[in-house]
Amino acid sequence: DAGVIQSPRHEVTEMGQEVTLRCKPISGHDYLFWYRQTMMRGLELLIYFNNNVPIDDSGMPEDRFSAKMPNASFSTLKIQPSEPRDSAVYFCASSLVGGSEKLFFGSGTQLSVL
Amino acid sequence: AQSVTQLDSHVSVSEGTPVLLRCNYSSSYSPSLFWYVQHPNKGLQLLLKYTSAATLVKGINGFEAEFKKSETSFHLTKPSAHMSDAAEYFCVVSERGTGRRALTFGSGTRLQVQP
Fold first, then answer.
1. What are the pLDDT digits (tens) for A11-60?
2. Which residues 5-64 of B are in CB contact (within 8 Å) with A?
3. Which residue of B41, B44, B106 is in closest CB contact with A105?
4. CB distance from B90 to chain A under 8 Å?
5. Rounded Cα distance, A97 and A53, in Å
6. Could you give the CA distance from residue A91 to residue A23 in angstroms, rounded to a whole number?
7. Sequence-distant (≥ 6) Cβ neighbours of residue B29 within 8 angstroms
8. In this structure, what are the phi and psi dihedrals at residue B62, rounded to the nearest 5 degrees?
């Protein structure tokens, strides 16, 4: 298995632009998580899905952020409009239900908003 | 509510000497505890996990951690550091029995290994 695949690896954009981050979880995994990592705040959970349904989005910073999971093999995190304070590394992770709670992380998307 | 506190933001050791990364947790329920490692520009990887089967947990790359309920601690140790151990380490808690699957991460400890 190729693991959790995120794209793009790096994204540089200007303030006000729309940004879409993509994630392909490991096949067969029931849970998908979006985390954001910054120096100031560490790793923060933004949202997670179970069987494509959003379960907890309390970590989503504000209405500018939205996440979707249209099917079991794809999820997006969208920021519109983007702001410089959104600059961070965004990680996607997936896991199996009822198992060990072991998360498999993607390599992350480094987002820079200028 | 659950939380973890990593007591050191940076730890520096010499190659071949022991490693100790400290973590204290707070949990209203019976916790699952984990250590994850992040090498530069990489995603996080599970080192080991505790889920009540045994208080001393062995992980990959020679790391182990001991769950001490009386001290609410889950410190990570390794007898002899290797240069390749240089990375950021995260202590993580998950509350079983709450129905919530999300993990709560500590702030991380950066381990430096000097030659």
1. 999 999 999 999 999 999 999 999 999 988 888 889 999 999 998 898 89
2. 32, 34, 36, 41-46, 49, 51
3. B44
4. yes
5. 14
6. 9
7. B2, B95, B96, B97, B98
8. 80, 5
Q: Is A106 on the interface with B (CB under 8 A)?
A: yes
Nearest to A36 by CA among A13, A16, A6, A15: A6
Residue A103, phi then psi, degrees to nearest 5: -90, 140
Look at the block and give the residue holding tokens 């090498």: B39
Does A50 reach chain B within 8 Å, measured CB to CB? yes
Residue found under tokens 């951690």: B65
pLDDT band at B42 (very low <50, low <70, confident <90, very high): confident
Residue A61 has a pLDDT of 86
Q: How far apart are CA B92 and CA B94, in angstroms?
A: 7
Average pLDDT for B87-103: 77
Which tens digits make up the pLDDT trace of B56-90? 999 999 999 999 989 999 999 999 999 999 999 99
